[in-house]
């Protein structure tokens, strides 16, 4: 059944009812085995040879990320700590960004609306040339494909939490693609 056109002229089809039934059976079996064996999603992925995002997506289970966890994204900005707070299998990619004094992640642009919420210090956000000072409790929403910069102009660390909504045509587990950066706010390496 044709549900319309996706990006680049590809045709998207609704899942076949048998495929959805098979996914539900697989999810039930995975959940039962994980519970019987006391396995986390990560342990089940490692033991099965399947990716963690596939296990999460197939099982449609909540994903818990401990406060000390997340998926650290490499950055060439000294002292910057950028973490995805879930696998790439969800329609929203949550993240945490911590910048030391004088650090900046600039020239970011990507598919998907982003929100950023201040949780520590003062993070300056430059969005399409406009400046916003985020302090704990402040929230900023950044539209799809708008260039933005994270900047800490203070003498203390600044931390924000946020999320990027994945475009509908992005399949689970596929990194978001941007104009200048290959991933959503997690990949903050300055361009050469």
Account of the 3D structure:
It is a single chain. The chain is of the alpha+beta class and 192 residues long. The protein has 2 domains: 2-59, no CATH class; 71-165, Jelly Rolls (Sandwich). The chain has helices at residues 17-37, 41-48, 52-59, and strands at 2-5, 11-13, 71-73, 81-84, 92-99, 104-108, 114-120, 123-127, 130-134, 139-142, 148-151, 158-165. It has a 6-stranded antiparallel β-sheet, with no helix packed on it. The chain has a 4-stranded antiparallel β-sheet with strand order 6-11-8-9, with no helix packed on it. Strand 3 and strand 4 form a beta hairpin. The longest helix is centred in the N-terminal third of the chain and has 21 residues, at 17-37. The N and C termini lie far apart (46 Å). The model is unreliable at 1-12 and 171-192 (pLDDT under 50).
Which terms summarize this structure?
alpha+beta, 192 residues, disordered N terminus, 4-stranded antiparallel sheet, 6-stranded antiparallel sheet, Jelly Rolls, 3 helices
Percent helix, as a range, is: 10-25%
Would you report the number of β strands? Answer: 12
CATH topology grouping of the largest domain: Jelly Rolls
Taking all residues together, what is the mean pLDDT?
75
Shape: elongated
Give the CATH superfamily of the largest domain: Jelly Rolls
In the CATH hierarchy, what is the class of the largest domain? Mainly Beta
Major β-sheet annotation:
6 strands, antiparallel
- Report the oligomer: single chain
How many DSSP H or I helices?
Answer: 3
Helix/strand class: alpha+beta
């Amino acid at each position: 059944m044709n549900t319309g056109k996706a990006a680049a002229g590809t045709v998207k089809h609704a899942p076949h009812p048998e495929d959805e039934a098979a996914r539900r059976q697989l999810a039930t079996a995975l959940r039962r085995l994980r519970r019987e064996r006391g396995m986390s999603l990560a342990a089940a992925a490692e033991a099965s040879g399947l990716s963690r995002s596939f296990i999460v997506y197939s099982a449609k289970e909540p994903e818990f990320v401990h406060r000390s966890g997340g998926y650290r994204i490499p950055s060439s900005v000294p002292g910057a700590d950028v973490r995805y707070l879930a696998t790439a299998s969800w329609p929203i990619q949550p993240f945490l960004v911590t910048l030391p004094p004088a650090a900046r992640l600039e020239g970011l642009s990507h598919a998907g609306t982003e929100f950023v919420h201040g949780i520590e210090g003062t993070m300056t956000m430059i969005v399409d040339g406009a400046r916003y000072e985020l302090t704990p409790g402040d929230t900023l929403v950044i539209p799809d494909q708008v260039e933005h910069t994270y900047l800490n102009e203070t003498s203390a660390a600044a931390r924000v939490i946020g999320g990027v909504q994945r475009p509908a045509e992005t399949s689970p587990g596929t990194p978001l693609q941007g104009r200048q950066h290959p991933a959503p706010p997690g990949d903050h390496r300055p361009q050469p």
